[in-house]
Amino acid sequence: MLHILFLLSLLLSTSHASVNDFCVADLKGPDGPSGYPCKPPAKVTTHDFVYAGLAAEGSTSNIINAAVTPAFVAQFPGLNGLGLSAARLDLAPGGVIPLHTHPGASELLIVTEGLVTAGFIASDNSVYVKKLSKGQLFILPQGLLHFQLSYGKSKAVAYAVFSSSNPGLQILDFALFASNFSSSLITQTTFLDPEQVKKLKSVLGGSG
């Protein structure tokens, strides 16, 4: 009998406990390791949990013939603290998302249109590459260099789902050739020809 009374009292006490079901981001606050501060619950509406930004096709009129449209916490505040986000990839014929990493998340790639080659390089330098078509999924582990490119004669569309509301992004080519990283240091650390480094920096806008 005492055992039953104890369970009933525990149930009653926990039923009134405060539960944080969500934490819609207050984007005016600082973005720290645990995310943004929460928007006051009284100001949260259904609209905070809806995002239509991936419906529109991204512009592929650029040097990589591709576009990435993010739905990270900065664009979709309702994701804050929930450990997931998404992005849309549009690739014109020959389009490529260059080698890059997401330091904060693994990525699940879902092809919805066209043909996409995706791959990643493991930490032991093993390479995993797969040609994907509509309806196929490919996993890209957290922090590893990976890429996507269109290999068909028509455009391709894919969606990426990430295991973080802010997965982060660093594109290898841009880090090397669109920054002020010293050309001499790039040459020494990558074994690339100085003239090639100079050419790539002129294309991508780097200095140094």
UniProtKB/TrEMBL annotation:
Binding site for oxalate: 102, 107
Keywords of the record: Apoplast, Disulfide bond, Glycoprotein, Manganese, Metal-binding, Receptor, Secreted, Signal
Single GO cellular component term: apoplast
Keyword Transmembrane among record annotations: no
Presence of keyword Nucleotide-binding: no
Binding site for Mn(2+): 100, 102, 107, 146
CDD domains attached to this UniProt entry: cupin_OxOx (cd02241)
InterPro entries: Cupin_1, Germin, Germin_Mn-BS, RmlC-like_jellyroll, RmlC_Cupin_sf
Domain Cupin type-1: 52-198
First-listed, main subcellular location of the protein, grouped into a coarse class: secreted
Gene3D superfamilies per record: Jelly Rolls
Protein's name according to its UniProt entry: Germin-like protein
Subcellular location: Secreted, Extracellular space, Apoplast
SMART domains attached to this UniProt entry: Cupin_1 (SM00835)
Any one GO MF annotation of this record: manganese ion binding
Signal peptide stretch: 1-17
Membership in a protein family: Belongs to the germin family.
Disulfide bond sites: 23-38
Coiled coil feature spans: none
PROSITE patterns reported in the protein's UniProt record: GERMIN
Species assigned in the record: Lupinus angustifolius (Narrow-leaved blue lupine)
Source organism phylogeny: Eukaryota, Viridiplantae, Streptophyta, Embryophyta, Tracheophyta
